[in-house]
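Summarise this fold before class:
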Amino acid sequence: MSTLVLSASSLLSFAIEPDPDPLTVSTAAQPVTGRLDITVGPGNSGPAFCKSVKVRIPIGAGAAQLTENRTALTSAVTGATGWTARPGYADGTWQVFEFTTDRPVNVTDRAATLVISQIEVNKTAGSADIEIIEETSPTNGSFTAKTTAADVQKFPAEFAFRNFRPAKIMVANGERAVLRWDGSTGATYTMYWGRSSQDVTSVREWSTPEPLTEPTGFMLQASVTTGGQTLVHTLTTVVMVERPDLDTGKLDVWGRADFHGDISLMEIAPARPFHEIAPGGPAYEFTAAASGFITVHGRAILSPRWEATASVRSGEIFAEAYMRYDGTTNRLSAGATATCPIVKGTRVRLSFSHVAGVTDGAARFWWIPLGNAQSPVA
């Protein structure tokens, strides 16, 4: 995978990708020839103008050098027009390649890929620091040189780490994922996912400790220590989840929403009496400070015959409970309860009136919150 590098003073960023990935050192029996693809992009400060980029390759046989054969190196530009790859030249223990533009290029996205190829990797594992020198300006004037250092890792010849993949690209909601990879011995392997990590050095097939309920990314790092240096190579993959759980702060639904299972509300407070209105009392009006439901119902009745209506209106939504007691059944009639959904910010009106003018009894209004919403009274 590519490594993104930039320095505090640079205006550009550089994504460096070796091929093969990772690079391993050469042996007498098996020489390794590789290449570096260096993709130019904007840095942390945003778009910038670029006139040229130089890439300096360290030459020698040690861990800090990349190759002993400077004359074999070649250069090219891919993915863009208006760039020229000039022949390389020696500068002491460096081989320098210059990439120039026909005119200053405004780098707003990936601008070009600078290629150094025919790299005959030397035989000493370690980190070789290459240098990238950009000639840039934020304003298309007063161009200055800025240097970024990047390390190119050369792993031992026996190191291998590849084919990191899930057994199933998509799992069912609540199913564990199985991940597999190919890796040589002598390295330490660590799995990262979410906020968790686990040493997986002893296995090449691993099952997630918990079932997955949402798409999950996994990063597997292999590290090996050689010559006092620790080299790290990283591979990533993603496992999708069918019908995943969603955790969102805001959701706007503009069309129909179908629910095919139970609806569970988090942190639901118990329903509690919201207001009790005596007959003849004034209506209550307020702006709802929270969303939920209001249910209306009548209290116990003393009169031998009794009729009353309790109603709640939230904006354009209206619910009404008609209550009647005939003096013989000792209970309220069917339909004596009604529920109205309340939307935060709407105007709500609660009222209670006797149809037959009886003076006792009252209506109760219960507040049923959505989530942990508090009373909707403003």
About this structure: The chain has three domains: 3-155, 161-242, 272-369. Residues 272-369 form a domain with the Jelly Rolls fold (CATH 2.60.120). Residues 265-272 have pLDDT under 50 and may be disordered.
